[in-house]
Amino acid sequence: MPDYFTGRSKAWIAYKIFVLIVSIGALALTAFSQTPEKCFRGAVRDAAGAVVVDAEIVLKNAAGKTIDRTVSDAAGEFVLGCVEKGAYTLLISKNGMATVEKKIDFAGERPAVSDVVLETAAVAETVTVNIEPDFVSSTTESATKTATALRDVPQSVEIVNRRILDSQAAFSLKDALFNVTAVAVAQGEGRRDQFVIRGFSAVGDQFIDGVRDDALYYRDLSNIEQIEVVKGPAAVLFGRGSSGGIINRTTKKPNVYEPLGSAEVNFGSYGLKRGMFDYGRPIFKEKLAFRFVGAYEDEGSFRAFYYQKRYNVAPSLAWKPDEKTDVTFQFEFLSDKRRPDRGIPSYRGRPVDVPAGTYYGFPGEDRITSRVSSQALRFERQLNPSWTLRNVFRRIGTATDFYNTVPGAVSLVGGGLRVARSQYDGVFDQTNYFDQTEAVGAVSTGGVRHTLLAGVEFGYQTKNSLVFRNGTAASVALVDPVLTRPVNTGVATTDNNFRADVFGVYFQDQISINRYFKALVGARFDNFKQKLDDFLPANADLGRTDRQWSPRAGLVYQPNDWLSFYASYTRSFQPSGENLSLAANNAELKPEMTRNYETGVKAAFQPFRLNATLAVFRLDRDNIKTTDPLDPTRLILVGEQRTDGLELTVSGAPLEKLDVVAGYSLLDARILKSNTISGGVSLQGKIAPLTPRSSGNLWLTYGLPRGFRLGFGGYARSKSFTSANNLVTLPGYARLDASLAWRGEKHYEIALNLKNVLNRRYYETSNGDNNIMPGAPVSGSVTFRYRW
Questions:
Q1: For residues 329 and 317, is the Cβ–Cβ distance under 8 A?
Q2: Would the pLDDT of 303 be above 80?
Q3: CA 308, CA 318: separation in Å to the nearest integer?
Q4: Which has more pLDDT, 100 or 229?
Q5: Are 526 and 547 in contact (CB under 8 A)?
Q6: What is the homologous superfamily of the domain 251-787 according to CATH?
Q7: Could you read off the pLDDT of 204-245 as tens digits, one per residue?
């Protein structure tokens, strides 16, 4: 794929951004000037007057067709549908409450106001409205830790829900995040999920239900309901890290009101065999429920010698002792065994031209085994109609044992090309304990409504590391390599224990100033204590403590009910021990700092049920560690990196049978200042690694007669570089995918998914200049699914 943006100036990029904003605004204004705006708004409360959050509101026209759908926000309010005059029906439902149906004959010039009171449903009268979810997610929990409409958040947030995951047969986090703009897949040494967000590594920016999950392993998605990516620094709620953003996985949970779940089996290319079972039932109606999720996967690869075997079990229990109290206990265990694949090397600035499956490790020994156990206890109590208190405790333990042989530089030896190799192995054992206590409430002052959040977080993290990095491996031929056994000296190069004590206190105010303006302000104070005990003969024990404030401020202007303009500022910090490690040359250094300046437009195009977000941002990171020019063994805090970018996302159902999710990003990510020399090249002025200038994603499905559904889409990006020295280029590419599914009248579904249908040769990602991962050739899978 050609790099259309090479050599373009920043002024040219700014001009294009301006043109895009003006064009979208003009199109929107044109579309909505054709008919008068008539909008439904209202609030949902229970019989005691307390706000009802996450109630589902559905708007239907006189013919019974769904026009729009949303959920009530943290204040219990909703906005639905800019429509023409006529008769409409509102359906308001929430589990455990009787569904309300309201007939509205809308003929006036003012927006229709519909406040709703939901009564607790008796067992005999509980009504369940099952509406097939689409690709649209209208609220976020991750961005504010409250149920907030996306249009009210002055920050870019993207959500990949279960409907998208199932539609694409996405089993891994990597597959899921191809649907998110400005996110690039990193190789992670063939040992872990790793991503680059807006030009910055996000290796430690993983969360589960809002709690840090920064261990290095491959996640399974069988127990995941949706994935939220909050763009830009998020330390205001989540603490250290998050230069480019965070990735938060929302788990499946029991339901005390109704049964739920599904079962499926998958068969596919390279011996793929996968099964998933999800079964939840109330034990005592409206009081106690359980849910059990389990999955098993066994597959090979187009890469020689690769294998992967994993299973995941996740039982959970929900208890509702009374109407105002909810308690949830969750347990999860993951076992993952696979061959760590480091890919192929480069030569003369490009990936080597060898068959895509060529392997340069040692299959007799290379392996990685990860075992992850997680336990969580969540308590939530409604104190009064306005305030809720909640606490969550989560423990995550991760044990990893690995051995890998790594390809290196290619050189000409005796008339033939040879690939240098190295070897290292090790054991990591990490345990996280986190406890969060939060109070959420709504108050009004002089007509201004506030949704307040106050929280405190305590955490303890410990990591034992034992690594043998001095192994040697003989070079092999570039073509048809004979894979000889490496030699390991058995002398440890790393043997330590790292401990981190985390304390954070945070406050947030979501302010509804009037009908047109909303503000979001907040701050968090962190005390991050780091200590490393070294067990090597040198016994170089290290430690430091960082104390930092992380603020956020944003403003939203909503001239009407379908359009939001926003601007925001966020800041985060990256301490030396961010990823649970310290070294002699960084233990005395202050944290690196990241600042994000963002403005954008969010639109809900009605009655097309199409949501769009256009974000323009500048992301600056300074105090970056870089080599001291007077002493190459020391680091100093003078480095700077900047990403100027634009993101455009679209999701929804513009036609009755059409669902779509799409995105495009334009990034200029550069190292502005650095003293570091890599490969004989200064890093100053270079483009950030694994950050293409332009990238885009598209996935759409269309309903056909007799229960069939056709899917089509793909992913494309311009060229990128394997490392910060920009000496090796990953060519741009476009990959096309497709699907065909059939669903019976009730419970059954069969789906065929194809990836890279044109069988294009491409290179997906890398870990440095000589660990390049080729993309998979055409492949497919068949899914048999039963839902109950």
A1: yes
A2: yes
A3: 33
A4: 229
A5: yes
A6: TonB-dependent receptor, beta-barrel domain (2.40.170.20)
A7: 999 999 999 999 999 999 999 999 999 999 999 999 999 999
Superfamily holding 35-125:
Immunoglobulins (2.60.40.10)
Task: With beta carbons less than 8 A apart as the criterion, state whether 501 and 529 touch.
Answer: yes
The total of other beta-carbon atoms located within 10 Å of residue 8's CB is: 15
User: Do 190 and 342 form a contact (C-beta atoms < 8 A)?
Assistant: yes
Judged against a pLDDT cut of 50, whether residue 37 lies above it is answered with no
- pLDDT of 84 > 70? The answer is no
Strands 206-208 and 245-251: parallel
Q: What CA dihedral angle connects 329, 464, 205 and 134, to 10 degrees?
A: -40
Residue 27, number of CB atoms within 10 A of its CB? 12
Q: What is the pTM of this model?
A: 0.87
Cβ of 440: how many Cβ atoms within 10 Å? 23
Query: What CA–CA distances, in Å, run from 513 to 193, 444, 563?
Result: 41, 10, 17
Q: Which residues pair with 730 in a beta bridge?
A: 720
Q: Which of 274, 253, 398, 265 is nearest to 326 (CA)?
A: 253
Query: How many residues does the structure list for the chain?
Result: 788
Per DSSP bridges, beta strands 112-113 and 39-46 are parallel
Contact between 370 and 336 under an 8 Å Cβ cutoff? The reply is yes
Break the chain into its structural domains and give their ranges.
35-125, 251-787
Q: pLDDT digit string (tens) for 430-480? A: 999 999 999 999 999 888 999 999 999 999 999 999 999 988 999 999 999
Q: Which of 384-388, 616-620, 759-763 has the lowest mean pLDDT?
A: 384-388
Among positive and negative, which fits the CA dihedral 220, 226, 230, 236? negative
Single-letter amino acid, residue 699: W
**Cα 722 to Cα 772: distance, rounded to the nearest angstrom:** 8
